[in-house]
Amino acid sequence: MAFDPPRPGDERFMAAAIRLAFRHSGQTGTNPSVATLLVRDDGAGPRIVGRGITALGGRPHAEAAALGEAGDLARGATAYVTLEPCAHHGRTPPCATALVSAGIARVVSAAADPDPRVDGKGHRILLSGGLSVTRGVLRADASSDLSPYLTRHALGRPQITLKTAISADGRIGREGSGQVFITGKIANGQTHLVRSRHDAILVGIGTVKEDDPGLDCRLPGLSDRSPRRIVIDPDLTIDPDMQLVRTARRTPLILVAKGSAEPDKRRALIEAGVEFVACDTVPGSNRVALPELLEDLGAMGLQNILVEGGAAVAASFIEADLVDRLILVRGEIEIGEGGIAAPIALDEAKRRFRQTDRLSLGTDLWFEFERRA
């Protein structure tokens, strides 16, 4: 296949498309949040004539939305697409075919699509249709935002982000003291924004019993973007009066439990709206076999999971090498003697992961890391 080199302005419009795609992050089901911009120049400079994002729930795709907005202005335009256009037939024709049929003159794509139904086939449809195709523009930036989708295809499991708040003396709480507030209002708001961009939040039963959390998104205007809640509870010891159970019909709750655990209680919880995922345990212990669990959660369509569990759950994901992204938020307070040690210290995180961001949020420091290549 003969691809054309980038042209002036390609990075500018692709960056705008990547920002647009971010609006529906975590809200497009098993499909990735992709954006398309249609740009044409009739002699007075380039202008955007069509915009599209993968719709909530995953359909229609971004290309179809952008073509619908542009109408006849799509003919002769350039399409900037953050992911290679799809090539497989469903209820509607492939997006690559739709771009050809609409008379698009040129397509600029960012990330390649690893789905075996696409994986280069979309580009081939475009080239066979006589379009100019440029690929790989801002690939790294687009791939970072699309990483849950790319991880699921590459590893067969959801992408895992571990987030934890750490006190100035390296602790995350105090045993038996309930929730200890380590970070301030600004960092807490950022946490809720991160929640809104994930398919699910995962914690252990210890955190639920200690804090009785809601695990929802409480930012104004984003309450309807609260992700599913997942609780690892092998022996099914959760109290039915916990607020996670009481709100299960409003925001889905998935309990990870052994198939043989408490059948009567299981039936009552199902009647309350709780979903179940059966789990295996590591031989010789009561710890859940995480690789198998993630495989099952991926089969349910979950692409990215935010782990906010306590020290034990966090440590188990780290030890199993299942953390793809890491967020550490360092507060100013000191917990002191008797505090629970953080599952990973900041210095260790910098050695094991690649730091991608550092933010000052009020008096707190927010660090982001990702798995080293």
Automatic annotation (TrEMBL):
<feature type="binding site">
    <location>
        <position position="207"/>
    </location>
    <ligand>
        <name>NADP(+)</name>
    </ligand>
</feature>
<dbReference type="InterPro" id="IPR002734">
    <property type="entry name" value="RibDG_C"/>
</dbReference>
<feature type="binding site">
    <location>
        <position position="95"/>
    </location>
    <ligand>
        <name>Zn(2+)</name>
    </ligand>
</feature>
<dbReference type="GO" id="GO:0008703">
    <property type="term" value="F:5-amino-6-(5-phosphoribosylamino)uracil reductase activity"/>
</dbReference>
<comment type="pathway">
    <text>Cofactor biosynthesis; riboflavin biosynthesis; 5-amino-6-(D-ribitylamino)uracil from GTP: step 3/4.</text>
</comment>
<feature type="binding site">
    <location>
        <position position="211"/>
    </location>
    <ligand>
        <name>NADP(+)</name>
    </ligand>
</feature>
<keyword id="KW-0686">Riboflavin biosynthesis</keyword>
<keyword id="KW-0479">Metal-binding</keyword>
<feature type="binding site">
    <location>
        <position position="195"/>
    </location>
    <ligand>
        <name>NADP(+)</name>
    </ligand>
</feature>
<dbReference type="InterPro" id="IPR050765">
    <property type="entry name" value="Riboflavin_Biosynth_HTPR"/>
</dbReference>
<keyword id="KW-0560">Oxidoreductase</keyword>
<feature type="binding site">
    <location>
        <position position="61"/>
    </location>
    <ligand>
        <name>Zn(2+)</name>
    </ligand>
</feature>
<comment type="function">
    <text>Converts 2,5-diamino-6-(ribosylamino)-4(3h)-pyrimidinone 5'-phosphate into 5-amino-6-(ribosylamino)-2,4(1h,3h)-pyrimidinedione 5'-phosphate.</text>
</comment>
<feature type="domain" description="CMP/dCMP-type deaminase">
    <location>
        <begin position="8"/>
        <end position="134"/>
    </location>
</feature>
<keyword id="KW-0862">Zinc</keyword>
<feature type="active site" description="Proton donor">
    <location>
        <position position="63"/>
    </location>
</feature>
<dbReference type="GO" id="GO:0008270">
    <property type="term" value="F:zinc ion binding"/>
</dbReference>
<comment type="similarity">
    <text>In the C-terminal section; belongs to the HTP reductase family.</text>
</comment>
<comment type="pathway">
    <text>Cofactor biosynthesis; riboflavin biosynthesis; 5-amino-6-(D-ribitylamino)uracil from GTP: step 2/4.</text>
</comment>
<dbReference type="GO" id="GO:0008835">
    <property type="term" value="F:diaminohydroxyphosphoribosylaminopyrimidine deaminase activity"/>
</dbReference>
<feature type="binding site">
    <location>
        <position position="86"/>
    </location>
    <ligand>
        <name>Zn(2+)</name>
    </ligand>
</feature>
<dbReference type="Pfam" id="PF00383">
    <property type="entry name" value="dCMP_cyt_deam_1"/>
</dbReference>
<protein>
    <recommendedName>
        <fullName>Riboflavin biosynthesis protein RibD</fullName>
        <ecNumber>3.5.4.26</ecNumber>
        <ecNumber>1.1.1.193</ecNumber>
    </recommendedName>
</protein>
<dbReference type="InterPro" id="IPR004794">
    <property type="entry name" value="Eubact_RibD"/>
</dbReference>
<dbReference type="Pfam" id="PF01872">
    <property type="entry name" value="RibD_C"/>
</dbReference>
<feature type="binding site">
    <location>
        <position position="218"/>
    </location>
    <ligand>
        <name>substrate</name>
    </ligand>
</feature>
<keyword id="KW-0378">Hydrolase</keyword>
<keyword id="KW-0521">NADP</keyword>
<dbReference type="GO" id="GO:0009231">
    <property type="term" value="P:riboflavin biosynthetic process"/>
</dbReference>
<dbReference type="InterPro" id="IPR024072">
    <property type="entry name" value="DHFR-like_dom_sf"/>
</dbReference>
<feature type="binding site">
    <location>
        <position position="165"/>
    </location>
    <ligand>
        <name>NADP(+)</name>
    </ligand>
</feature>
<feature type="binding site">
    <location>
        <position position="308"/>
    </location>
    <ligand>
        <name>substrate</name>
    </ligand>
</feature>
<feature type="binding site">
    <location>
        <begin position="310"/>
        <end position="316"/>
    </location>
    <ligand>
        <name>NADP(+)</name>
    </ligand>
</feature>
<keyword id="KW-0511">Multifunctional enzyme</keyword>
<dbReference type="InterPro" id="IPR016192">
    <property type="entry name" value="APOBEC/CMP_deaminase_Zn-bd"/>
</dbReference>
<feature type="binding site">
    <location>
        <position position="215"/>
    </location>
    <ligand>
        <name>substrate</name>
    </ligand>
</feature>
<dbReference type="InterPro" id="IPR016193">
    <property type="entry name" value="Cytidine_deaminase-like"/>
</dbReference>
<dbReference type="InterPro" id="IPR002125">
    <property type="entry name" value="CMP_dCMP_dom"/>
</dbReference>
<comment type="similarity">
    <text>In the N-terminal section; belongs to the cytidine and deoxycytidylate deaminase family.</text>
</comment>
